[in-house]
Design brief:
The chain has two domains: about 30 residues, no CATH class; about 90 residues, no CATH class. The chain is an alpha/beta fold and about 160 residues long. It starts with 13 loop residues before the first helix and ends in a 5-residue tail after the last strand. It has a three-stranded parallel β-sheet, with helices on one face. Helix 3 links the parallel strand 1 and strand 2. It has six helices and five strands. Helices cover about 40% and strands about 10% of the residues.
Length: about 160
């Protein structure tokens, strides 16, 4: 069993290349990993069993069995594995942005020059004015733009850094 992703975008990763090579030699490969929702649901089922063993049957404030004994949040740094997988499994996700897969992309989106659409239109008619102003784009907007432009769902939450 491979731990590679079932997503076609994973074929550029080393686990995706290994999966592709093995498929050529041996036929089919069972993939079980992010962003496959089964990966997340399996982890949740294990957590539910451990929670029930430690705390017993979950109950609401009235003493009735609870339908939702656990609150689940997947934390990761990849929109194509972590955020997509959590979305497919219908659980909340939190994207960490200060390191990892998309750090450089988010840094490149951090600043824009001080021009707007009117200035861009006017620049077609005459040479544009020189502008050295740089406006910082908020992290939330950069993550949303990255997700939207890449065709992936947006995370439920965004943290710039994470420390224990």
């Amino acid at each position: 069993m491979s731990s590679s992703s079932s997503s076609s975008s994973s074929s550029s990763s080393s686990s995706g290349r290994l999966k592709n090579a093995y498929e050529k030699i041996a036929g089919s490969v069972l993939s079980f990993g992010k962003p496959d929702p089964a990966f997340f649901l399996y982890a949740i089922s294990i957590a539910n069993k451990e929670h029930k063993a430690k705390y017993g049957e979950a109950r609401d404030l009235k003493g009735n069995p609870s339908r939702r004994p656990l609150r689940v949040l997947h934390v990761g740094d990849s929109i194509s594995h972590d955020i997509l997988g959590a979305s497919l499994a219908n659980i909340d996700s939190c994207m960490i942005t200060d390191h990892g897969v998309h750090y450089k992309e988010l840094e490149q989106l951090k600043y824009k020059t001080g021009t707007d659409n009117i200035e861009q239109f006017q620049s077609m008619l005459s040479p544009p004015p020189v502008s050295n102003t740089r406006e910082e784009i908020p992290l939330l907007m950069r993550v949303c733009d990255l997700c939207d432009n890449s065709g992936f769902p947006r995370p439920s939450y965004i943290l710039e850094s994470f420390q224990l």
